[in-house]
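During the first year of the project, the team set up a workflow for recording each protein of interest as an amino acid sequence followed immediately by a discrete structure-token representation. This format lets reviewers and collaborators read both layers of information side by side without switching files. As required by the reporting guidelines, we include two representative entries from the current panel. The first entry is reproduced here exactly as it appears in our internal archive.
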Amino acid sequence: LTDHWLGYTAIAIFSLAYVLVILEEKLMLRKSKPVLLAAGLIWMLIGAYYGLHGDSDAVQVAIRHNFLEYAELFFFLLVAMTYINSMLERNVFDALRDWLIIRGFSYRKLPWMTGVLAFLISPIADNLTTALIMCAVILAVGKGQPQFIAVCCVNIVVAANAGGAFSPFGDITTLMVWQKGMLEFGTFYKLFIPSVVNFMIPALVMQFSLPRGCPLSIGVKQTAIKSGGVMIVILFLLTITTTVFFHNFLHIPPVFGMMMGLAYLKFFAYYLRQVGRANIDNPDIHASVEVEEEFDVFDKIAKAEWDTL
């Protein structure tokens, strides 16, 4: 259908949908809506054409092939988002933010600190999530310094994208390439040096536009990581290890390793709930001891970025 009117119509529908995606913030229309509608319309046209020509089976095979690839990405990212949401709820990133403020790093050191962290976190947590988290840290640290915030956020986005390029987990694109089996896991690390260069050069250029001095840390107290927060980070790293093992040694799609990693988190959530209930029921525990709310994994799944998924 490349030269058929249907092919051109499909391209037109696709292009219109992406124009609406670009205008998402202007129209206040979530990007998933036009994209889902466009996909349905395109497949409907293709299905009608093949049905009229007596070859409806070809459409079913094509849709199932594409939908399976999408489903693998969907569940892979859903587990990653669930872990990130769990870390957010356990104050892991709030503790990092307060640590940066209390240490009294200057306005010129903070972009390097947050940039390096973004570069190192994005290969594990994906570049979009990393950029959002680290920019939230900068917004908290740089109150009253709009130029500092702007430059730092640009630096973080560059660092997160550069860091995400040398890992299958760093970006949806690299994840698709790895899941398809086009490159082995270790092959991505050949991009490490180019990724460092892509982070360092813009960071050095932006250094000249940063103000001097240090952000105020008066009244800032170190946020405590809730019980289980560090263990969730460890379980996330174990999940990634499991995923790589499944793919490289057992030749099982990576998504199954991630789903098994979700089981790690669910069992740990069960443990946290049991500990919390034991603390409530135990009369020997002093009344001033704060008993944390039950940790619900499904609540973290519900808070995933569904529009992006």
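The second entry, processed by the same pipeline in the following quarter, appears below.
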Amino acid sequence: MLELRAIVWGVQDVARALAFWSAALDYEVSSHPDETWAILKLREGRSGPQLSLKLVHSPQARRHHMDLFTHDQAAEVERLIALGARRVPDWRYDPNADYVVLKDPDGNPFCVCQLPEDE
């Protein structure tokens, strides 16, 4: 089973986006932001996806994507491929990456993230 837990929003100024989106959505900072990455979460008592802000350098880059979370990443990746998704073959993963980048049938990227066993 997949859950939409995060929307990743590509921005050219993380601090500016953090100020704007936290006020616009009444979200709060979830982690220690830096100049390349910040996570906003809903305030206590509200439910919905977090908003992750990621620094992008190119105005032409695909800036937005969803993060889908699951306890069985491998099975979900295969299920999504059977439904028409495809792997991004040249993606360079960080050594400790907990996600797999796929594209939907229209070419829109999204990530399938592995949840920790205790969650």
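For the second entry, the following points were noted during internal review. DSSP finds two helices and eight strands in the chain. The mean pLDDT is 90. Both points are flagged for discussion at the upcoming steering committee meeting.
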